[in-house]
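PROTEIN DESIGN WORKSHEET
SECTION A - STRUCTURE
LENGTH: 258
TOKENS:
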């Protein structure tokens, strides 16, 4: 699995994306072509989001995170975004190495809208992060703009929606076995996300500089920044995660991603 993940892992420079690229979740050769193969561990953030949430507001949240990242690191971030980085012609094989992809990113970025807590695949991703031993400092929570504020005290994996009921049952059984109980998992997620939500809420009030919202001309895009920037190595996928997650990821219906 690690070998396959290493050969297929892709990332996309955030300044190459435009808002239109996160409208709709149908396969897009144009969006996929923006991503390039990169080494595991050089991707700055794994993006977890719900396709049912407003794309314009997700884009605003993503730009807020981008502005903060640039202010800290002085460069553009490279992200893992499903529509850009998954080989849409071989989704089943790609999803089987999802834990390795997540472990190959330095942080988990939640673009949290009203439906994020309810989507099966979002629960799969946060479960992977928790099981991987993800540290809270690697977790970024940016609620979407407007009046919405997430209430993570109500997070309940048992309430996630799935197009195929068997997929949900498989996920719940895996979480129950790995966490001791669904309640234990829910409490761990509620505590972790609520703490970060309170820290990130203030950033939603910050205005985004106009230059952060635009993409540079192709000629102005420098070489991939990750190779020359020394940062802490990512967490390695543990045997538990590598052995457990593919058993629920591979058979899950692609319908649960929509």
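SECTION B - SEQUENCE
RESIDUE ASSIGNMENT:
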């Amino acid at each position: 699995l690690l070998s396959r993940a290493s050969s297929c892992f892709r990332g996309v420079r955030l300044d190459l994306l435009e808002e239109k690229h996160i409208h709709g979740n149908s396969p897009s050769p144009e969006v996929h072509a923006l991503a390039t193969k990169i080494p595991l561990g050089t991707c700055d953030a794994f993006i977890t989001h719900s396709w049912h949430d407003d794309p314009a507001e997700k884009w605003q949240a993503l730009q807020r995170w981008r502005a903060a990242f640039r202010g800290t690191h002085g460069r553009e971030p490279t992200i893992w975004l499903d529509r850009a980085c998954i080989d849409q012609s071989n989704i089943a094989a790609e999803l089987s190495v999802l834990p390795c992809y997540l472990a190959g990113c330095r942080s988990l970025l939640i673009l949290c809208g009203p439906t994020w807590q309810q989507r099966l695949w979002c629960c799969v991703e946060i479960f992977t992060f928790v099981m991987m031993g993800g540290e809270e400092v690697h977790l970024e929570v940016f609620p979407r703009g407007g009046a919405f504020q997430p209430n993570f005290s109500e997070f309940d994996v048992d309430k996630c929606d799935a197009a195929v009921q068997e997929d949900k049952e498989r996920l719940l059984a895996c979480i129950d076995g790995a966490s001791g109980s669904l309640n234990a998992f829910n409490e761990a997620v509620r505590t972790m996300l609520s703490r970060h939500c309170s820290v990130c809420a203030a950033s939603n009030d910050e205005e985004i500089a106009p230059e952060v919202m635009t993409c540079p001309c192709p000629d102005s895009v420098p070489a991939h920044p990750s190779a020359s920037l020394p940062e802490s190595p990512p967490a390695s996928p543990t045997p538990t995660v590598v052995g457990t997650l593919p058993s629920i990821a591979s058979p899950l219906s692609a319908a649960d991603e929509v």
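SECTION C - NOTES
The radius of gyration is 17 Å.
The first helix runs from residue 2 to 8.
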